[in-house]
Amino acid sequence: MTNEPEEVRRLVEAIEAFEAIEDDEACAAAVTQALGQWPDHHSKLRELRQKRVQALKARGKTWEEIGKLLGGITAARGQQIGAGMR
């Protein structure tokens, strides 16, 4: 496994827990409930990332450095994330 943050590992484990539910009805219902809440969580994650990217830029990081930090995306994409663009 890669050297991923604990929070990422726990999210992946939660998804794997859905896969482990043997009862089809229970699994489908649980996944539906989680997906129903996902839009709010997705928005929160995007806003958090944008805020932190803006903070990195304010501390003097270049867009190239930010792009590399975010997994090797382009500097232009890092700048778009900082601006809240999808």
Can you walk me through this structure?
By secondary structure, the chain is mainly alpha-helical. The protein has helices at residues 6-20, 24-58, 63-69, 75-82. Helix 2 crosses helix 4 and helix 3 (63-69) packs across helix 4 (75-82). The chain starts with 5 loop residues before the first helix and ends with a helix. The model has no long low-confidence stretch (mean pLDDT 94).
In quaternary terms, these chains amount to: single chain
Report helical residue fraction: over 70%
Which structural class matches the secondary elements? Answer: mainly alpha
Rounded mean pLDDT is 94
Tertiary shape: elongated
* Spatial gap, N to C terminus: 29 Å
What order do the helices and strands follow? HHHH
What value does the Rg take, in angstroms? 17 Å
Give the low-confidence spans. none
Query: Which sheet architecture does the biggest sheet show?
Result: none
Helical segment count? 4
Work out the strand percent.
under 5%
Give the total of beta strands: 0
Topology:
Blueprint (H helix, E strand, L loop, with lengths): L5 H15 L3 H35 L4 H7 L5 H8 L4
Helix pairs in contact: 2-4, 3-4
Which key features would you list for this structure?
86 residues, 76% helix, 4 helices, mainly alpha
Provide a short characterization of the protein structure.
By secondary structure, the chain is mainly α. It has helices at residues 6-20, 24-58, 63-69, 75-82.
